[in-house]
Design a protein that fits this description.
This protein is an alpha+beta fold and 395 residues long. The protein has one domain. The protein has 12 helices and 10 strands. The chain is globular and about 65 Å long. It starts with a helix and ends in a 14-residue tail after the last helix. InterPro entries: HODM_asu-like (IPR021848). Pfam families: HODM_asu-like (PF11927).
């Protein structure tokens, strides 16, 4: 009897294990079938079509000790000793989507003033991008008050800026009743310029909404409505067709909601104007360019301009959002940092001829290069040499 009970016990244990494994297998199959993902919903979609996904961008933790008066801009120094033409994209840390600092007031005030003065030359939303623009506002509603709770507060109808007192209404209402352009509303919240690309039925992405208010060297009114490739070729981006066009088009098509990316670039500017570099011409003129600029006479008039760009796919509309955050500081200030003068000198000297033309090299080289060399040699005499330089790109 005892032996029979033991056999029964052993049999029941084995049956329970087998049943558990079978249940787990069923659950896994069930989860695969039910999980909303790009692989199921949008893997084989036709160009210009998008099925809304249930992906939710993670709510970020508060920025520790962030202060609108004290938190300094991040020191992006996105150049290497040798320049190469690539997309230069990196995976984005999700908590770091939007970067704000103690220059927020300046950026905000410049945006408000320029939007009032220039109107639809610097912002606008095509009807086919309106849903995406409001989706961007919803994303800001989730992100900004969580990340910067001392600056933003969620409201049932939208969001409040706790410093300026501005109230943005865009939730729980009829979007058609909102008179302020949604992209302008979004731009007033952050230091970034913003752009939304919508995929057409031809599989090409078009600039259909934007608030490009502090661009420095290009104008929203010239680019709005353009396809992605024309935005770049009309601006004479070096080797775009040869090295960037194909890869960028594929990247846009394949970008998923859960894999946002960032990239950085940099320019030398021969004036101190954040919003528009008047050196390349009057913003109101039909044609502007480096050919109108006067040659820089001193390194003291040169500024380092760097952009941190993020790209995100929005889950509901499938639109792609660009954020373009500009960082701006004097070259003289930049050159006080260890290793920077030599690295920037080598980077600029490695530009190909078409890159030199595009970036205005011949308008600032005589002021910039001797200064960088002098500052680099001063550091090298103190033992700050390339061989000891830490690898910290893009800083």
């Amino acid at each position: 009897m005892i032996e029979l009970e033991f056999k029964h016990y052993l049999y029941l244990v084995m049956l329970a294990v087998a049943a558990g494994a079978f249940v787990l297998k069923l659950l896994k199959k069930s989860n695969v079938k039910q999980a909303p993902s790009r692989e199921i919903l949008n893997k084989d979609r036709k160009p210009g079509q998008w099925m809304p996904e249930s992906y939710q961008f993670p709510i970020p933790p508060p920025f520790l000790n962030w202060d609108i008066e004290k938190t300094r801009p991040l020191p992006y120094r996105a150049f290497k000793h040798k320049y190469t033409i690539t997309m230069g994209i990196r995976n984005m840390e999700l908590d770091l989507w939007i970067e704000l600092d103690n220059e927020w007031h300046k950026y905000h005030n410049d945006k408000v003033m320029r939007a009032q003065t220039l109107g639809n030359d610097v912002y606008g939303t095509y009807p086919e991008a309106r849903a995406a623009a409001f989706e961007l506002l919803d994303e800001f509603w989730n992100y900004l008050p969580a990340r910067y709770p001392s600056l933003f507060k969620q409201l049932p109808t939208g969001m409040e800026n706790l410093v300026t007192g501005e109230v943005f209404k865009f939730k729980n209402c009829n979007p058609d009743d909102i008179t302020e352009d949604p992209m302008l509303m979004a731009a007033k919240m952050v230091q970034d310029d913003l752009a939304i690309m919508i995929e057409g039925s031809d599989g090409i992405y078009y600039l259909k909404a934007g608030a490009i208010i502090l661009p420095g060297f290009w104008r929203f009114k010239d680019k709005k409505g353009m396809p992605l490739h024309e935005i770049h070729t009309s601006g004479d981006v070096p080797k775009y067709n040869e090295k960037l066009h194909s890869g960028m088009a594929k990247f846009f098509t394949r970008l998923t909601c859960d894999k946002p990316v960032v990239r950085n670039n940099y320019f030398i500017q021969t004036d101190d104007e954040l919003a528009w570099s008047s050196s390349i011409g009057d913003e109101k003129e039909d044609v502007v360019g480096w050919y109108t600029a006067d040659a820089a006479k001193s390194a003291q008039q040169l500024y380092f301009r760097s952009e941190r760009q993020s790209l995100r796919r929005l889950p509901k509309t499938g639109a792609i959002v660009f954020t373009i955050r500009t960082y701006f500081c004097p070259i003289s200030e930049l050159c006080e940092e260890p290793h920077i003068p030599r690295r920037l000198f080598n980077a600029v000297e490695s530009w190909s001829e078409d890159v030199k033309e595009y970036r205005g090299y011949y308008k600032f080289k005589d002021a910039l290069l001797p200064y960088l060399k002098e500052k680099a040699e001063e550091q090298e005499k103190r033992g700050i040499i390339e061989e000891k330089e830490p690898s910290v790109y893009p800083f």
